[in-house]
Amino acid sequence: MSNIVPTISSGTAGPLGVLHLPRLWLKASLGAAGKLHSDYPAIGAGYDQMVLDGLGIDKGDFESFIAHSKPSYIECENWILQQKGGSLDQDAVNELNAAISGYIHDDDTRSEILDAAGREDDGTINDAVNLNNLDDWAIFHAQELK
Fold first, then answer.
1. How far is 77 from 71, CA to CA, in rounded Å?
2. What share of the chain is helix, strand, coil (3-state, %, to 5)?
3. Where are the domains of the chain?
4. Model confidence over 41-60: pLDDT tens digits?
């Protein structure tokens, strides 16, 4: 089996309402199991770190929890709630979600992603969430379907 391309969008939220958290859980879980595609960090400096920082969760603690507990997604959310005393600051979640939704890639990154995906850069796709989706799907297609 080839390593897995994480195709859960950063624009997806689980029951806690935190964008990108399902993708972070998936990438970290695949990374801990040695099954993550080499083009992806298990926990990167972009959206992954934004989510951990926005929730006030230590990266090392999160990595350790994922590696040792191998949690389901709901178990991961429950662990986060335990770390935060049972609830999240909804204003902080809203701010984090807005930062994720509103992030725009630079022109070179946008052009590179669209070119690799086979789509003309007509200026209609600018947000990082959708560009990252196209990037994931192109990598998945190249690896799994060719």
1. 9
2. 60, 5, 40
3. 1-103, 104-146
4. 999 999 999 999 999 999 99
